[in-house]
Amino acid sequence: MVFIKNTLRELKAHLAVALVGGVAKVLLSFLIISTISDFVATTHETSLNSYIILLSGVLLSFVIGFIANDRVAFISTTVTRLLREHLSEKVLRAQFTEIENIGDSKVRVNLTEDTSRVANVIAMLPTIFFSLCYIFVAFVYLLYVNMIMFATFIGVLISGTIIISFVVRSMNKKYRRLREILDDYQNHIAALSLGHKEMSLNRLRRSFLFSRRILLTTEDIQKSEYEGDRLSFFAMDFAEALVLSMLVLMIFIANSLINAPIVELSNFLLVILFIRGPIATIISGLPNINRAIISLDKLKQITKLEEVNTLDDKNTEKLPKTFTLTLENACFTYPKTDDSKPFSVGPVNLSLSSGEVVFIVGGNGCGKSTLIKLICGLYLPQSGKVGLENFDSSEEEYRNQFSAIFSDYYLMKDVISEFGNSVDSETYDALLEELHLNKVVSLESDSFSTINLSQGQKKRLALFQLYVENKPIVVFDEWAADQDPFFRNLFYRKLLPDLKAKGKVVIVVSHDVQYFSQSDRVLKLLDGELKESQYEHSDINSIVKQFELESY
Questions:
Q1: Stretch 488-499: mean pLDDT, rounded?
Q2: Which of 23, 362, 364, 540 is the most exposed, having the fewest neighbouring CB atoms within 10 Å of its CB?
Q3: SS3 of 513, please?
Q4: Cα–Cα distance between 44 and 335 in angstroms, integer?
Protein backbone atom coordinates (compact mmCIF):
# COMPACT_ATOMS: atom_id res chain seq x y z
CA MET A 1 0.00 0.00 0.00
CA VAL A 2 1.32 3.40 -1.03
CA PHE A 3 0.23 5.00 2.24
CA ILE A 4 2.36 2.59 4.31
CA LYS A 5 5.38 3.18 2.06
CA ASN A 6 5.01 6.95 2.39
CA THR A 7 4.63 6.67 6.16
CA LEU A 8 7.81 4.60 6.41
CA ARG A 9 9.64 7.28 4.42
CA GLU A 10 8.53 9.88 6.96
CA LEU A 11 9.87 7.64 9.74
CA LYS A 12 13.19 7.04 7.98
CA ALA A 13 15.26 8.37 10.91
CA HIS A 14 13.68 5.84 13.28
CA LEU A 15 13.97 3.18 10.58
CA ALA A 16 17.70 3.93 10.18
CA VAL A 17 18.28 3.55 13.93
CA ALA A 18 16.37 0.26 13.90
CA LEU A 19 18.28 -1.08 10.89
CA VAL A 20 21.73 -0.10 12.17
CA GLY A 21 20.93 -1.31 15.67
CA GLY A 22 19.45 -4.57 14.41
CA VAL A 23 22.43 -5.37 12.21
CA ALA A 24 24.86 -4.42 15.01
CA LYS A 25 23.05 -6.69 17.47
CA VAL A 26 23.06 -9.59 15.03
CA LEU A 27 26.77 -9.17 14.25
CA LEU A 28 27.58 -8.91 17.94
CA SER A 29 25.48 -11.99 18.68
CA PHE A 30 27.38 -14.05 16.11
CA LEU A 31 30.67 -12.74 17.45
CA ILE A 32 29.61 -13.90 20.91
CA ILE A 33 28.55 -17.30 19.54
CA SER A 34 31.88 -17.66 17.71
CA THR A 35 33.80 -16.72 20.85
CA ILE A 36 31.84 -19.21 22.94
CA SER A 37 32.55 -21.89 20.31
CA ASP A 38 36.26 -21.07 20.49
CA PHE A 39 36.17 -21.24 24.29
CA VAL A 40 34.61 -24.68 24.09
CA ALA A 41 37.07 -25.96 21.47
CA THR A 42 40.25 -24.51 22.98
CA THR A 43 42.57 -26.69 25.03
CA HIS A 44 44.09 -23.70 26.84
CA GLU A 45 42.77 -22.12 30.02
CA THR A 46 40.66 -19.03 29.37
CA SER A 47 41.49 -15.96 31.46
CA LEU A 48 38.98 -14.19 33.71
CA ASN A 49 39.30 -11.02 31.61
CA SER A 50 38.10 -12.95 28.57
CA TYR A 51 34.95 -13.95 30.40
CA ILE A 52 34.38 -10.38 31.58
CA ILE A 53 34.79 -9.08 28.00
CA LEU A 54 32.39 -11.74 26.75
CA LEU A 55 29.76 -10.80 29.38
CA SER A 56 30.26 -7.13 28.51
CA GLY A 57 29.56 -8.01 24.90
CA VAL A 58 26.35 -9.75 25.99
CA LEU A 59 25.31 -6.63 27.93
CA LEU A 60 26.12 -4.40 24.95
CA SER A 61 24.12 -6.71 22.69
CA PHE A 62 21.16 -6.38 25.06
CA VAL A 63 21.33 -2.56 25.10
CA ILE A 64 21.69 -2.28 21.31
CA GLY A 65 18.91 -4.82 20.76
CA PHE A 66 16.57 -2.97 23.12
CA ILE A 67 17.17 0.35 21.35
CA ALA A 68 16.59 -1.23 17.94
CA ASN A 69 13.47 -3.07 19.10
CA ASP A 70 12.16 0.10 20.72
CA ARG A 71 12.46 1.99 17.41
CA VAL A 72 10.88 -0.81 15.39
CA ALA A 73 8.04 -1.06 17.93
CA PHE A 74 7.55 2.71 17.65
CA ILE A 75 7.47 2.45 13.86
CA SER A 76 4.97 -0.44 13.83
CA THR A 77 2.57 1.19 16.32
CA THR A 78 2.83 4.55 14.54
CA VAL A 79 2.11 3.00 11.15
CA THR A 80 -0.86 1.10 12.64
CA ARG A 81 -2.28 4.26 14.21
CA LEU A 82 -1.82 6.32 11.04
CA LEU A 83 -3.35 3.53 8.93
CA ARG A 84 -6.49 3.48 11.08
CA GLU A 85 -6.70 7.26 10.96
CA HIS A 86 -6.11 7.29 7.20
CA LEU A 87 -8.84 4.73 6.45
CA SER A 88 -11.34 6.46 8.73
CA GLU A 89 -10.53 9.77 7.09
CA LYS A 90 -10.96 8.29 3.61
CA VAL A 91 -14.45 7.08 4.53
CA LEU A 92 -15.40 10.46 6.02
CA ARG A 93 -14.10 12.32 2.98
CA ALA A 94 -15.74 9.99 0.45
CA GLN A 95 -18.77 10.60 -1.71
CA PHE A 96 -21.88 9.11 -0.07
CA THR A 97 -22.76 7.04 -3.14
CA GLU A 98 -19.37 5.29 -3.08
CA ILE A 99 -19.83 4.21 0.55
CA GLU A 100 -23.39 3.15 -0.24
CA ASN A 101 -22.18 1.03 -3.16
CA ILE A 102 -19.52 -0.75 -1.06
CA GLY A 103 -22.07 -1.55 1.63
CA ASP A 104 -22.22 -0.96 5.36
CA SER A 105 -21.11 -4.46 6.39
CA LYS A 106 -18.08 -4.47 4.06
CA VAL A 107 -16.97 -1.04 5.28
CA ARG A 108 -17.17 -2.28 8.88
CA VAL A 109 -15.12 -5.40 8.04
CA ASN A 110 -12.55 -3.20 6.28
CA LEU A 111 -12.19 -0.84 9.24
CA THR A 112 -12.17 -3.58 11.90
CA GLU A 113 -11.03 -7.05 10.85
CA ASP A 114 -8.95 -6.10 7.80
CA THR A 115 -7.26 -3.23 9.60
CA SER A 116 -6.60 -5.44 12.65
CA ARG A 117 -4.97 -8.14 10.49
CA VAL A 118 -2.68 -5.60 8.87
CA ALA A 119 -1.94 -4.09 12.28
CA ASN A 120 -1.06 -7.53 13.69
CA VAL A 121 1.50 -8.10 10.94
CA ILE A 122 2.90 -4.60 11.43
CA ALA A 123 3.28 -5.46 15.14
CA MET A 124 5.19 -8.59 14.09
CA LEU A 125 7.69 -6.51 12.09
CA PRO A 126 10.31 -6.26 14.87
CA THR A 127 10.48 -10.05 15.24
CA ILE A 128 10.41 -10.70 11.49
CA PHE A 129 13.01 -8.01 10.85
CA PHE A 130 15.50 -9.35 13.38
CA SER A 131 14.86 -12.92 12.26
CA LEU A 132 15.80 -11.95 8.71
CA CYS A 133 18.90 -10.14 10.00
CA TYR A 134 19.97 -13.21 11.95
CA ILE A 135 19.47 -15.46 8.94
CA PHE A 136 21.36 -13.10 6.60
CA VAL A 137 24.37 -12.72 8.93
CA ALA A 138 24.29 -16.47 9.59
CA PHE A 139 24.63 -17.13 5.85
CA VAL A 140 27.61 -14.79 5.62
CA TYR A 141 29.21 -16.45 8.64
CA LEU A 142 28.58 -19.99 7.34
CA LEU A 143 30.15 -19.02 4.00
CA TYR A 144 33.20 -17.83 5.91
CA VAL A 145 33.40 -21.03 7.98
CA ASN A 146 33.32 -23.57 5.12
CA MET A 147 32.36 -22.92 1.48
CA ILE A 148 31.63 -26.56 0.57
CA MET A 149 29.35 -27.12 3.54
CA PHE A 150 27.69 -23.74 2.88
CA ALA A 151 27.04 -24.60 -0.80
CA THR A 152 25.40 -27.87 0.24
CA PHE A 153 23.40 -26.06 2.91
CA ILE A 154 22.13 -23.47 0.40
CA GLY A 155 21.21 -26.15 -2.17
CA VAL A 156 19.10 -28.05 0.34
CA LEU A 157 17.57 -24.81 1.62
CA ILE A 158 16.57 -23.67 -1.90
CA SER A 159 14.97 -27.05 -2.60
CA GLY A 160 13.01 -26.85 0.64
CA THR A 161 11.99 -23.24 -0.05
CA ILE A 162 10.55 -24.22 -3.44
CA ILE A 163 8.41 -26.88 -1.78
CA ILE A 164 7.29 -24.43 0.91
CA SER A 165 6.40 -21.83 -1.74
CA PHE A 166 3.91 -24.24 -3.32
CA VAL A 167 2.41 -24.85 0.12
CA VAL A 168 2.17 -21.09 0.76
CA ARG A 169 0.45 -20.55 -2.60
CA SER A 170 -2.20 -23.14 -1.72
CA MET A 171 -2.52 -21.64 1.75
CA ASN A 172 -3.09 -18.21 0.23
CA LYS A 173 -6.03 -19.53 -1.84
CA LYS A 174 -7.65 -20.97 1.29
CA TYR A 175 -7.29 -17.70 3.22
CA ARG A 176 -8.58 -15.65 0.29
CA ARG A 177 -11.67 -17.85 0.19
CA LEU A 178 -11.99 -17.44 3.97
CA ARG A 179 -11.96 -13.64 3.64
CA GLU A 180 -14.81 -13.75 1.12
CA ILE A 181 -16.91 -15.92 3.44
CA LEU A 182 -16.38 -13.48 6.32
CA ASP A 183 -18.34 -10.82 4.39
CA ASP A 184 -21.35 -13.15 4.36
CA TYR A 185 -20.88 -13.97 8.04
CA GLN A 186 -20.88 -10.25 8.88
CA ASN A 187 -24.31 -9.92 7.26
CA HIS A 188 -25.66 -12.85 9.31
CA ILE A 189 -24.28 -11.33 12.53
CA ALA A 190 -26.07 -8.07 11.68
CA ALA A 191 -29.30 -10.04 11.31
CA LEU A 192 -28.70 -11.64 14.72
CA SER A 193 -28.44 -8.33 16.55
CA LEU A 194 -30.51 -5.90 14.49
CA GLY A 195 -33.27 -8.41 13.74
CA HIS A 196 -33.49 -10.01 17.17
CA LYS A 197 -37.03 -8.76 17.81
CA GLU A 198 -38.28 -10.35 14.61
CA MET A 199 -36.35 -13.55 15.34
CA SER A 200 -37.89 -13.77 18.80
CA LEU A 201 -41.36 -13.80 17.26
CA ASN A 202 -40.74 -16.33 14.51
CA ARG A 203 -39.38 -19.79 15.27
CA LEU A 204 -39.10 -20.76 11.58
CA ARG A 205 -37.11 -17.63 10.76
CA ARG A 206 -34.80 -18.24 13.73
CA SER A 207 -34.30 -21.83 12.63
CA PHE A 208 -33.68 -20.83 9.01
CA LEU A 209 -31.12 -18.16 9.92
CA PHE A 210 -29.27 -20.53 12.24
CA SER A 211 -29.37 -23.77 10.24
CA ARG A 212 -29.34 -22.49 6.64
CA ARG A 213 -27.19 -19.42 7.05
CA ILE A 214 -25.05 -19.28 10.19
CA LEU A 215 -24.24 -23.00 10.48
CA LEU A 216 -23.38 -23.38 6.79
CA THR A 217 -21.31 -20.19 6.82
CA THR A 218 -19.40 -21.11 9.99
CA GLU A 219 -18.76 -24.57 8.55
CA ASP A 220 -17.31 -22.92 5.43
CA ILE A 221 -15.21 -20.63 7.64
CA GLN A 222 -13.96 -23.57 9.71
CA LYS A 223 -13.15 -25.59 6.60
CA SER A 224 -11.21 -22.81 4.90
CA GLU A 225 -9.43 -21.80 8.10
CA TYR A 226 -8.58 -25.40 8.98
CA GLU A 227 -7.21 -26.11 5.50
CA GLY A 228 -5.14 -22.92 5.58
CA ASP A 229 -3.81 -23.56 9.09
CA ARG A 230 -3.11 -27.18 8.21
CA LEU A 231 -0.88 -26.10 5.35
CA SER A 232 0.77 -23.56 7.65
CA PHE A 233 1.63 -26.25 10.22
CA PHE A 234 2.90 -28.47 7.44
CA ALA A 235 5.24 -25.68 6.32
CA MET A 236 6.52 -25.18 9.89
CA ASP A 237 7.04 -28.89 10.54
CA PHE A 238 8.68 -29.31 7.14
CA ALA A 239 11.07 -26.44 7.86
CA GLU A 240 11.94 -27.95 11.24
CA ALA A 241 12.59 -31.35 9.68
CA LEU A 242 14.67 -29.69 6.95
CA VAL A 243 16.91 -27.96 9.50
CA LEU A 244 17.45 -31.20 11.47
CA SER A 245 18.17 -33.08 8.25
CA MET A 246 20.79 -30.48 7.36
CA LEU A 247 22.49 -31.05 10.71
CA VAL A 248 22.82 -34.73 9.90
CA LEU A 249 23.96 -33.95 6.34
CA MET A 250 26.61 -31.45 7.55
CA ILE A 251 28.03 -34.00 10.00
CA PHE A 252 28.18 -36.62 7.22
CA ILE A 253 29.93 -34.22 4.77
CA ALA A 254 32.37 -32.93 7.38
CA ASN A 255 33.38 -36.36 8.67
CA SER A 256 33.08 -38.58 5.60
CA LEU A 257 33.76 -36.38 2.56
CA ILE A 258 35.91 -33.35 3.35
CA ASN A 259 37.37 -34.12 6.79
CA ALA A 260 36.53 -30.64 8.06
CA PRO A 261 38.17 -29.52 11.34
CA ILE A 262 36.05 -30.06 14.44
CA VAL A 263 35.99 -26.28 15.10
CA GLU A 264 34.43 -25.60 11.69
CA LEU A 265 31.87 -28.35 12.14
CA SER A 266 30.93 -27.21 15.65
CA ASN A 267 30.60 -23.59 14.49
CA PHE A 268 28.49 -24.66 11.52
CA LEU A 269 26.17 -26.82 13.63
CA LEU A 270 25.90 -24.19 16.37
CA VAL A 271 24.84 -21.49 13.88
CA ILE A 272 22.28 -23.77 12.19
CA LEU A 273 20.79 -24.57 15.58
CA PHE A 274 20.82 -20.85 16.40
CA ILE A 275 18.80 -19.87 13.30
CA ARG A 276 16.16 -22.56 13.86
CA GLY A 277 14.27 -20.02 15.94
CA PRO A 278 14.33 -17.20 13.35
CA ILE A 279 13.33 -19.61 10.57
CA ALA A 280 10.44 -20.94 12.66
CA THR A 281 9.37 -17.38 13.45
CA ILE A 282 9.16 -16.46 9.77
CA ILE A 283 7.40 -19.67 8.76
CA SER A 284 4.87 -19.38 11.62
CA GLY A 285 4.18 -15.79 10.58
CA LEU A 286 3.27 -16.77 7.01
CA PRO A 287 -0.48 -17.31 7.71
CA ASN A 288 -0.78 -13.87 9.27
CA ILE A 289 1.27 -12.31 6.48
CA ASN A 290 -0.89 -13.98 3.82
CA ARG A 291 -4.11 -12.88 5.49
CA ALA A 292 -2.76 -9.35 5.87
CA ILE A 293 -1.91 -9.25 2.15
CA ILE A 294 -5.48 -10.31 1.35
CA SER A 295 -6.81 -7.64 3.75
CA LEU A 296 -4.59 -5.01 2.13
CA ASP A 297 -6.09 -5.96 -1.21
CA LYS A 298 -9.58 -5.53 0.27
CA LEU A 299 -8.61 -2.17 1.77
CA LYS A 300 -7.90 -0.84 -1.71
CA GLN A 301 -11.63 -0.19 -2.13
CA ILE A 302 -11.30 2.27 0.77
CA THR A 303 -7.98 3.83 -0.20
CA LYS A 304 -9.21 4.47 -3.76
CA LEU A 305 -12.26 6.41 -2.63
CA GLU A 306 -12.50 9.86 -4.14
CA GLU A 307 -12.19 12.60 -1.51
CA VAL A 308 -14.98 15.17 -1.76
CA ASN A 309 -15.34 16.26 1.89
CA THR A 310 -12.96 18.18 4.13
CA LEU A 311 -12.31 17.64 7.85
CA ASP A 312 -11.54 21.19 8.94
CA ASP A 313 -13.44 23.15 11.60
CA LYS A 314 -14.33 25.99 9.24
CA ASN A 315 -17.83 27.36 9.80
CA THR A 316 -20.40 26.82 7.08
CA GLU A 317 -20.73 29.78 4.75
CA LYS A 318 -23.83 31.79 5.62
CA LEU A 319 -26.69 32.09 3.16
CA PRO A 320 -28.53 35.41 2.78
CA LYS A 321 -31.82 35.73 4.66
CA THR A 322 -33.75 35.13 1.47
CA PHE A 323 -32.52 32.42 -0.87
CA THR A 324 -33.82 29.96 -3.42
CA LEU A 325 -32.91 26.30 -3.96
CA THR A 326 -33.40 25.14 -7.55
CA LEU A 327 -33.35 21.89 -9.50
CA GLU A 328 -33.16 22.28 -13.27
CA ASN A 329 -33.86 19.11 -15.26
CA ALA A 330 -32.08 17.15 -12.52
CA CYS A 331 -31.93 13.39 -13.11
CA PHE A 332 -30.51 10.47 -11.18
CA THR A 333 -30.53 6.87 -12.43
CA TYR A 334 -29.47 3.83 -10.45
CA PRO A 335 -27.09 1.33 -12.07
CA LYS A 336 -28.83 -1.43 -14.00
CA THR A 337 -29.22 -4.75 -12.15
CA ASP A 338 -30.04 -8.08 -13.79
CA ASP A 339 -32.52 -7.67 -16.66
CA SER A 340 -34.69 -5.06 -14.94
CA LYS A 341 -35.03 -1.52 -16.20
CA PRO A 342 -32.89 0.89 -14.14
CA PHE A 343 -34.94 3.14 -11.86
CA SER A 344 -34.70 6.89 -12.49
CA VAL A 345 -35.86 10.05 -10.76
CA GLY A 346 -36.33 13.07 -12.97
CA PRO A 347 -36.04 15.20 -14.85
CA VAL A 348 -36.99 17.35 -11.86
CA ASN A 349 -37.63 21.10 -12.15
CA LEU A 350 -38.22 22.62 -8.77
CA SER A 351 -37.75 25.92 -6.94
CA LEU A 352 -37.86 26.17 -3.14
CA SER A 353 -37.65 29.52 -1.36
CA SER A 354 -36.65 30.43 2.18
CA GLY A 355 -39.57 30.38 4.59
CA GLU A 356 -41.39 27.72 2.54
CA VAL A 357 -42.74 24.41 3.83
CA VAL A 358 -43.00 21.73 1.13
CA PHE A 359 -44.44 18.25 1.57
CA ILE A 360 -43.26 15.41 -0.70
CA VAL A 361 -45.69 12.53 -0.97
CA GLY A 362 -45.97 9.33 -2.95
CA GLY A 363 -46.18 5.58 -2.73
CA ASN A 364 -43.45 3.19 -1.64
CA GLY A 365 -40.66 2.91 -4.17
CA CYS A 366 -41.70 6.01 -6.10
CA GLY A 367 -38.36 7.75 -5.47
CA LYS A 368 -39.00 10.02 -2.45
CA SER A 369 -35.78 9.05 -0.63
CA THR A 370 -33.82 9.32 -3.87
CA LEU A 371 -35.23 12.80 -4.50
CA ILE A 372 -34.32 14.15 -1.08
CA LYS A 373 -30.81 12.71 -1.40
CA LEU A 374 -30.58 14.47 -4.75
CA ILE A 375 -31.82 17.72 -3.19
CA CYS A 376 -29.34 17.39 -0.28
CA GLY A 377 -26.41 16.78 -2.62
CA LEU A 378 -25.79 13.23 -1.38
CA TYR A 379 -26.59 12.07 -4.90
CA LEU A 380 -25.10 14.13 -7.70
CA PRO A 381 -27.36 14.70 -10.72
CA GLN A 382 -26.20 12.75 -13.75
CA SER A 383 -27.78 15.46 -15.87
CA GLY A 384 -29.24 18.83 -15.05
CA LYS A 385 -28.37 21.05 -12.08
CA VAL A 386 -29.02 21.26 -8.34
CA GLY A 387 -27.94 24.37 -6.43
CA LEU A 388 -28.66 27.67 -4.76
CA GLU A 389 -29.39 30.76 -6.82
CA ASN A 390 -26.82 33.55 -6.55
CA PHE A 391 -24.68 31.44 -4.24
CA ASP A 392 -21.56 30.12 -5.88
CA SER A 393 -20.33 27.29 -3.69
CA SER A 394 -18.59 23.93 -3.82
CA GLU A 395 -20.57 20.68 -3.64
CA GLU A 396 -19.41 20.23 -0.05
CA GLU A 397 -20.41 23.75 0.96
CA TYR A 398 -23.80 23.16 -0.65
CA ARG A 399 -24.33 19.96 1.37
CA ASN A 400 -23.39 21.79 4.56
CA GLN A 401 -26.47 24.02 4.23
CA PHE A 402 -28.68 21.02 5.13
CA SER A 403 -29.77 19.26 8.28
CA ALA A 404 -31.72 16.07 7.70
CA ILE A 405 -33.40 13.31 9.66
CA PHE A 406 -33.67 10.38 7.26
CA SER A 407 -35.96 7.42 7.78
CA ASP A 408 -32.86 5.29 8.45
CA TYR A 409 -31.15 8.03 10.44
CA TYR A 410 -28.23 7.46 12.82
CA LEU A 411 -28.38 9.32 16.13
CA MET A 412 -25.04 10.78 17.18
CA LYS A 413 -24.40 11.08 20.91
CA ASP A 414 -22.28 14.20 20.50
CA VAL A 415 -24.17 17.48 20.10
CA ILE A 416 -22.59 19.82 17.55
CA SER A 417 -23.76 23.42 17.57
CA GLU A 418 -24.14 25.80 14.63
CA PHE A 419 -20.59 27.12 14.95
CA GLY A 420 -18.95 24.02 16.44
CA ASN A 421 -18.70 25.62 19.88
CA SER A 422 -20.15 24.48 23.19
CA VAL A 423 -23.92 24.18 23.37
CA ASP A 424 -25.67 26.62 25.66
CA SER A 425 -27.83 24.12 27.48
CA GLU A 426 -30.03 26.84 29.04
CA THR A 427 -31.04 28.01 25.56
CA TYR A 428 -32.27 24.55 24.61
CA ASP A 429 -33.69 23.40 27.95
CA ALA A 430 -37.10 24.69 26.93
CA LEU A 431 -36.99 22.64 23.72
CA LEU A 432 -35.97 19.51 25.64
CA GLU A 433 -38.90 20.09 27.95
CA GLU A 434 -41.28 20.71 25.05
CA LEU A 435 -40.15 17.43 23.47
CA HIS A 436 -40.69 15.71 26.87
CA LEU A 437 -37.06 14.66 26.98
CA ASN A 438 -35.83 16.73 29.92
CA LYS A 439 -36.58 13.92 32.40
CA VAL A 440 -34.82 11.17 30.44
CA VAL A 441 -31.79 12.90 28.94
CA SER A 442 -29.53 15.85 29.66
CA LEU A 443 -26.54 17.55 28.08
CA GLU A 444 -23.20 16.57 29.61
CA SER A 445 -20.04 18.06 28.08
CA ASP A 446 -21.80 18.65 24.75
CA SER A 447 -23.09 15.07 24.62
CA PHE A 448 -26.42 13.46 25.37
CA SER A 449 -26.29 11.68 28.72
CA THR A 450 -27.85 8.65 27.02
CA ILE A 451 -29.27 7.59 23.68
CA ASN A 452 -30.67 4.28 24.95
CA LEU A 453 -34.24 5.42 24.43
CA SER A 454 -37.35 4.42 22.54
CA GLN A 455 -37.46 4.94 18.77
CA GLY A 456 -39.79 7.92 19.15
CA GLN A 457 -37.59 9.53 21.81
CA LYS A 458 -34.50 9.02 19.64
CA LYS A 459 -36.19 10.80 16.75
CA ARG A 460 -37.04 13.69 19.04
CA LEU A 461 -33.40 13.84 20.13
CA ALA A 462 -32.44 13.96 16.45
CA LEU A 463 -34.88 16.86 16.07
CA PHE A 464 -33.21 18.60 19.01
CA GLN A 465 -29.84 18.16 17.29
CA LEU A 466 -31.31 19.62 14.08
CA TYR A 467 -32.40 22.72 16.01
CA VAL A 468 -28.93 23.09 17.53
CA GLU A 469 -27.27 22.86 14.11
CA ASN A 470 -29.53 25.67 12.88
CA LYS A 471 -29.01 25.05 9.15
CA PRO A 472 -31.01 27.06 6.59
CA ILE A 473 -32.51 23.97 4.88
CA VAL A 474 -34.04 21.12 6.88
CA VAL A 475 -35.32 17.76 5.66
CA PHE A 476 -37.63 15.36 7.50
CA ASP A 477 -38.06 11.91 5.97
CA GLU A 478 -41.25 10.55 7.56
CA TRP A 479 -40.17 11.95 10.96
CA ALA A 480 -43.65 11.70 12.47
CA ALA A 481 -44.08 8.02 11.60
CA ASP A 482 -42.76 6.91 15.02
CA GLN A 483 -44.54 9.58 17.06
CA ASP A 484 -47.75 9.37 19.06
CA PRO A 485 -50.67 11.73 18.18
CA PHE A 486 -49.51 14.38 20.67
CA PHE A 487 -45.99 14.72 19.25
CA ARG A 488 -47.22 14.32 15.68
CA ASN A 489 -49.53 17.25 16.24
CA LEU A 490 -46.73 19.21 17.95
CA PHE A 491 -44.45 18.58 14.98
CA TYR A 492 -46.87 19.66 12.27
CA ARG A 493 -48.70 22.49 14.02
CA LYS A 494 -45.96 24.10 16.12
CA LEU A 495 -42.43 23.04 15.14
CA LEU A 496 -42.86 23.28 11.35
CA PRO A 497 -44.41 26.77 11.59
CA ASP A 498 -41.57 27.75 13.93
CA LEU A 499 -38.94 26.60 11.41
CA LYS A 500 -40.85 28.40 8.65
CA ALA A 501 -40.86 31.60 10.72
CA LYS A 502 -37.08 31.32 11.05
CA GLY A 503 -36.84 31.59 7.25
CA LYS A 504 -35.79 28.02 6.60
CA VAL A 505 -36.65 25.83 3.64
CA VAL A 506 -38.55 22.93 5.22
CA ILE A 507 -38.88 19.71 3.21
CA VAL A 508 -41.11 17.03 4.71
CA VAL A 509 -41.67 13.53 3.33
CA SER A 510 -45.03 12.56 4.75
CA HIS A 511 -48.09 10.35 4.40
CA ASP A 512 -50.09 12.30 7.00
CA VAL A 513 -52.76 13.73 4.71
CA GLN A 514 -54.60 15.33 7.62
CA TYR A 515 -51.68 17.73 8.05
CA PHE A 516 -51.27 18.75 4.40
CA SER A 517 -52.81 22.09 5.36
CA GLN A 518 -49.57 22.91 7.20
CA SER A 519 -47.64 23.00 3.94
CA ASP A 520 -47.27 25.73 1.36
CA ARG A 521 -47.06 23.16 -1.41
CA VAL A 522 -47.50 19.42 -1.81
CA LEU A 523 -45.29 17.71 -4.38
CA LYS A 524 -46.21 14.22 -5.51
CA LEU A 525 -43.85 11.62 -6.91
CA LEU A 526 -45.07 8.83 -9.15
CA ASP A 527 -42.50 6.42 -10.62
CA GLY A 528 -39.76 9.01 -10.32
CA GLU A 529 -41.74 11.86 -11.90
CA LEU A 530 -42.59 14.93 -9.83
CA LYS A 531 -45.77 16.95 -10.07
CA GLU A 532 -47.44 19.53 -7.85
CA SER A 533 -50.79 18.63 -6.31
CA GLN A 534 -53.42 21.16 -5.31
CA TYR A 535 -55.42 20.40 -2.18
CA GLU A 536 -58.25 22.33 -0.56
CA HIS A 537 -56.83 22.93 2.88
CA SER A 538 -60.20 23.66 4.44
CA ASP A 539 -61.73 20.22 3.92
CA ILE A 540 -59.77 17.26 5.33
CA ASN A 541 -62.16 14.66 3.89
CA SER A 542 -61.74 16.04 0.37
CA ILE A 543 -57.96 16.04 0.82
CA VAL A 544 -57.98 12.37 1.79
CA LYS A 545 -60.28 11.47 -1.09
CA GLN A 546 -58.21 13.44 -3.63
CA PHE A 547 -54.99 11.94 -2.31
CA GLU A 548 -56.38 8.42 -2.70
CA LEU A 549 -57.55 9.13 -6.25
CA GLU A 550 -54.17 10.47 -7.32
CA SER A 551 -51.98 7.81 -5.88
CA TYR A 552 -50.20 4.70 -5.75
A1: 93
A2: 364
A3: helix
A4: 85
